[in-house]
Amino acid sequence: MPTYVIKRSGARELFDEAKVKVAILRSGATAPEAEDILKRLKTELYDGITTEVIYRHVHQMLQGRKAIKFGLKKAILRLGPEGENFERFMARVYEAEGYRTTVRSTIPGKCVQHEVDIILENESEKVMVECKFHNSLGLKSNIQCTLYCFARFLDLKTTQNFDLSCLATNTRFSSDAVQYADCVGMRLLGWRHPEGAGLEQLVEKHSLYPITILDMHRSDLGILLSKHFLLARDVLDQKEEMKHLLPSSTVESLSSQVRELLS
Fold it and tell me: What is the CATH number of the domain that holds 221?
């Protein structure tokens, strides 16, 4: 009998072995390792199983660095529940792509003032970025998000000399959001979009794993985020500062995880 999976949105769909295999391989697992995990996973499947339960099974079967990387999407989600940490995280991503960034600027448009999440600048362009952070993985950035972002761009472009607008999110885009953005010349950056250069691929390209990908107590994570430790690599780059915030045993544990992740 076919096995149906319940997605985070509540929708039912047939279990797609190929989709799970791609996610496992993306973690760095070899093809034989992925096949072995799929074989074991199939013994745990039942009709109506949720994608969350499947995620937990696969995560438990992966080891070390691979397990950490498999949890990337959830790690970005844990930057919330508010959007400020995500905005600062995205600024780090854009900086790695060669932009100068300014986070959270209040600037006048033609009609009203706007708070722009990120301003990007390089030698050839100036871009306003609206960040849409979703605190649930089942949500998509829809056409209302793109309409809102482009309307603000229209009010700001003449007074601030913006060349382009961009909408960045931690999840996926709806098909009509993509269609509208393509039509008006607006950039989108999200999970698996654009194809071949989505958010997860930029994170991998520059090793910009969020600090939330590491295994630590929630209270320790709260302390680090409050001090703007956003990336796993910040643990090594700012280790001396960390020693004033957390017990030395915790600092060494986190440092060990980061070295394994970045190796």
Answer: 1.10.150
Q: What is the pTM of this model?
A: 0.85
- Helix and strand tally (H, E) in the chain? 13, 10
User: Structural domain of residue 149, as residue ranges?
Assistant: 84-206
Q: Do 166 and 215 fall into the same domain? A: no
The candidate with the shortest Cα–Cα distance to 150, out of 125, 130, 122, 121, is 130
- pLDDT single digits (tens) 88-118: 999 999 999 999 999 999 999 999 999 999 9
User: How do residues 47-82 score in pLDDT, each as one tens digit?
Assistant: 999 988 998 899 889 877 787 777 888 899 999 888
CA angle 258, 253, 243 (to 5 degrees): 95
Tokens of 16: 């797609």
Q: Is 80 exposed, middle or buried (0-12, 13-18, 19+ CB in 10 A)?
A: middle
With left for phi above 0 and alpha for psi between -120 and 50, is residue 64 left, alpha or beta?
A: left
- Burial pattern 32-50, b for ≥16 Cβ within 10 A else e, equals ebbeebbeebeeeeeeebe
Which residues share a beta bridge with 107? 114
Cα dihedral 28, 33, 37, 39, rounded to 10, equals 150
Work out how many domains the chain is built from and give that number.
3
